[in-house]
Amino acid sequence: MPTTQPPYYITTPIYYVNDRPHVGSCYTTLLADCAARFMRAAGRPVFFLTGTDEHGQKVEKSAASRGLTPKALADENAAHFKTAFQFLHCSFDHFIRTTDAAHEAQVQEALRRLIKSGDVYLGTFEGWYDEGQEEYVTENQAREKNFKAFNGQPLVKAKEHNYYFRLSAFQKRLEEFFEKNPGFVRPEARRNEVLGRFKEGLQDVPVSRTSFTWGVPFPKEIEGADRHVTYVWIDALFNYITALDLLSVSPAPGGGDVAPRQRGQPPLASFWPAQVHAIGKEILWFHAVIWPALLMALNLPTPHCIYAHSFWIRDGKKMSKSLGNFIDLETIHAYCNAFSVDAWRWFMLTQGPIEATDADFSHPKFVEAYNADLANGIGNASSRVLNMIEKYFAGAVPDPQGNSNHAGHDWPALAQSSLASATSAMEHFDLAGALAAAMSLSKRVDAYIVATEPYRMAKDQAKMPEVGLVLYHCAEALRIAATLLACAMPAKMSDVLQRFGQEPPRPDGSFSRPLSELCKWGGLKPGTRVVKGEGLFPRADSDAPPPTPTPP
Ligand code: MSP
Which helix (H) or strand (E) holds 185? Predict the structure, then answer.
């Protein structure tokens, strides 16, 4: 496929290894996967990055409590994240770990440059510290939160001699940057939150720690820097550019286990700046303010968009370890086994907290969406159409004889607008909107069948050409819908496409031709053999209990 289209770089947060994957980490990674697959299908060169954040005191402490070295704990849990994301068919191009030698070397290089430019300096700091989040909060925030940390524990007053990043010096530049780039932080409500905090004035942020050792050491040659390790958040943010070898000092690219660039693929560095850093709302400040300031200090371009989604909650309550109501990997596995991985993906992608409000996970809601969109939706439409082609046309796609507009349905225009809306929504990271635009074609097929009643017409031999016309339109609309929906449900939509005699997407979501060509009306050749197959999404019984959590 020609790679003249602009590169698309999308990232997830890198997840802490003192925890196991759960619905939250899987959710953000699924969002990024869906966008990455769609962009690959559209023909854009894509780099999709996820990974693990492995340094810091929390990891050091968790490891010690289990009698492990921090690295051993990190190895164990990084593997869990990788396996969980692969199980959910996430097509990441690289899984970065902050303990990768290439990452560590580049973090040191960033520090060297920042110290040289004077943006990082040695100083003293005293303030309210959230031990769970490993971050300082301002006096105002501490008061607002009743001096409680994110996890409910008391905030502690801490004093440190540290290296600091001169964030205060970037206040004006950042304000101008926000003004000029209204789409930088999304959704809008999140942007307003950041703008509100600008008014409190920006304070310098510590970028080193001396209270523990599990971190990237400050470069040896820097005077007074021995015993200082890089603050976990600063180390972590740099992952977005170290994965592209942007700060590499060695001439040979050595980005961890990045697959070697194949011929025709753009160089890694050309993926910067990222189109989207997909994150959860609780880590917005680091991404929306500290990260662009660090990049400005390094004279590097800033990312296009920080997309901060909201939280999954469960049955109306925040999920927490103490309540024991986390949707853990065992629960995710149970749903995937009972309803398919793609049904889980569909629910996550269409019913999740992508916008500014939290989304409630409940079993009845899952079953309702599953039945409405999948079992009674595209699953049923595909089975009906395949059945009728088999029954009335011996399994060969009928010939519409050049007619594309029928019974008030201008099919080429419908297909075109579905592609255009899905593409534009995806470019704005409106995944639910993009998927709704694609699904609308399948809904049209239902309405068209109801309006034209091909099964009734088929009783009259003279009407068979019209039955053929209707079924061609239905099959072609479903082919296009499945092509557009493959980014959300890669396995099931591959199955639909194959039943209609079409080539499925490649494992990374790309096709041999871009969506703009594939989704043109008329791509389905009359005479193509179709296969009826088993039911795609068997109906779910809404009275049945939720599936029992099962170990992976
Ligand atoms: N390591 C930092 C991120 C560094 S990025 C440079 C971190 N890690 S984390 O393991 O705590 O992951 C946080 C992310 O997990 C959130 O930003 C969000 O993407 C996801 N989620 C965690 N809980 C969630 C929900 N309940 N709902 C949705 N997503 C949430 O913070």
Answer: strand 185-186
